[in-house]
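[Automated response] Your request has been received and processed.

Submitted sequence:
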Amino acid sequence: MKIPKRLQPLVDDGLIDDVLSRLMSGKEADVFVVQCGDHIRCAKVYKEASKRSFKKAAQYQEGRKVRGGRQARAMGKRSSYGRQLEEEIWQNAEVDALSRLASAGVRVPDTYGCIDGVLLMELVCDDSGDVAPQLGNVALSEEEAIRQHSLMMHYIKLMLCAGIIHGDLSEFNVLVDSKGPVIIDLPQAVNAAANNSAEAMFARDVNNMRRYYGEYAPALLQTQYAKEMWALFSEANLTPNSTLTGEFEDNSEAADVDAILEEIEAAREEELERLDRIRDVDEDA
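Generated structure:
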């Protein structure tokens, strides 16, 4: 295929030998299958902020570290330099999160560098060498759904122990190969300890997984892993070796109406975004 303009510098520098195909076009990035020497990898080309449609980006970026006061002021003033810094932080957030999560034992794609807004990383494939499907395109038995859900809760626990919340986890951001789920797409990764919306985003991530796997194993719909893990995390008692049960007894005497309304609104927005993604997939098919 014709080499996209954004990938040409990497071809000129010998980092990419050939662009084989377009894998997908999303709301935040375009992904291409590329040849790098003897390896087939993927190149994730981040879209410019003006062309992205990720909602409430500032909410996700809250709590991310900025190098110094000058940079923080520039970002606050929305100067051209500040906007450039925001782009760098947005792109580097995914590289940093993928690296930290791999070290923590979470299954994520290997990365090979981010150059000029292009992230080179592992192409996750199935046993036949084809691109691994999204979780949302995989039919599961009840037994397999329970197994994968348990593994996903373990990965989410490891993520939280590493201080990271995916922030947009759903069946569209998980690939499935012969070993099980692989978590992808983390440019919006949230700082679990420094973001005021961290708990709500964490609950949404966990409950999205509960909802999806619960379609195949209805008993999972009764689990409370989000509340259980967050309670342990809040008390500094969550560790990679913590045993989870999926049970949680809420001892609060009065309901937090505002929190409930926020959760309902977050769930509504998530469902609208899920439907948008389904339509995008149907249009690309």
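Summary generated for your ticket: The chain has two domains: 5-235, 255-284. The first strand starts at residue 18 and ends at 25.
If you did not submit this request, please reply to this message.
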